[in-house]
Design a protein that fits this description.
The complex is a heterodimer of chains A (about 120) and B (about 120).
Chain A: E1 3-5, E2 10-14, E3 19-21, E4 24-26, E5 32-39, E6 46-52, E7 60-61, E8 64-69, E9 74-79, E10 88-96, E11 104-105, E12 109-114
Parallel strand pairs in A: 2-12
Antiparallel strand pairs in A: 1-4, 3-9, 5-6, 5-10, 7-8, 8-9, 10-11, 10-12
Chain B: E1 4-7, E2 10-13, E3 19-25, E4 32-38, E5 44-51, E6 57-58, E7 67-73, E8 76-81, E9 90-98, E10 103-106, E11 110-114
Parallel strand pairs in B: 2-11
Antiparallel strand pairs in B: 1-3, 3-8, 4-5, 4-9, 5-6, 7-8, 9-10, 9-11
Classes of the chains: A mainly beta (about 120), B mainly beta (about 120).
Chain lengths: ~120, ~120
């Protein structure tokens, strides 16, 4: 069975600075997807970024980028130029590539942005 | 863009009563939807997969007689919490994959409080 681990329950970053959130996962599958979701106080899940395992190039979305290390089963999220609106819970998620859309979520990291 | 709605957004009920939560995909059809449960400050836990036209698939440890799922149409899935008890109080989130876009959309969630 696949597992997703987020070892940082809480992180803080100064506004305009850069922060990296860690995620590791365990799987025996070779093809899968990884995601970072943001859950603000409204609790609406918002997709931040997604990575296909077969792609070696790290995904980037504006200020958000990932460091995907397939061999190490590591998938960290870097937030550059942090903004107050980035404050939220961040969840790392895993999904098998084989047709199912079942997600396995990590335990989450609460990000605080300090003004 | 694609939207998934949930109704009600929050509900209070007395212990022993049943509560129905609706999940709708507003501009696309979803043969599969997912129901998650999230306790305060915790991650999303997958409860079941709702399948249009067939029985739901429940995750291990989830009582199927307590959490009744009906996928009535290609745009509607309902979760009924039967004989609710205070320990059922939680945040329930549904999601629906838009397979043509390889994207999953989450509903805004339903907060259930059982007194």
């Amino acid at each position: 069975a696949q597992t997703v681990t987020q070892s940082q329950p809480e992180m803080s970053v100064q506004e305009a600075e850069t922060v990296t959130l860690s995620c590791t996962y365990d799987t025996s599958e070779s093809d899968y997807y990884l995601f970072w979701y943001k859950q603000p106080p409204s609790r609406q899940m918002i997709l931040v970024i997604r990575q296909e395992a077969y792609k070696q190039q790290n995904a980037t979305e504006n200020r958000f980028s990932v460091n995907f290390q397939k061999a190490a089963k590591s998938f960290s999220l870097k937030i550059s130029d942090s903004q107050l609106g980035d404050a939220a819970m961040y969840f790392c998620a895993y999904r098998s590539a084989g047709g199912t859309y079942k997600y396995i979520f990590g335990t989450g990291t609460r990000l605080k942005v300090l003004a | 863009g694609a939207v998934v709605s949930q109704h009600p957004s929050w509900v209070i009920c007395k212990s022993g009563t049943s509560v129905k939560i609706e999940c709708r995909s507003l501009d696309f059809q979803a043969t599969t939807m997912f129901w998650y449960r999230q306790f305060p400050k915790q991650s999303l836990m997958l409860m079941a997969t709702s399948n249009e036209g067939s029985k739901a698939t429940y995750e291990q440890g989830v009582e199927k007689d307590k959490f009744l799922i009906n996928h009535a149409s290609l745009t509607l899935s309902t979760l009924t919490v039967t004989s609710a008890h205070p320990e059922d109080s939680s945040f329930y989130i549904c999601s629906a994959p838009r397979t043509a876009q390889e994207t999953q959309y989450f509903g805004p969630g339903t907060r259930l409080l059982v007194l």
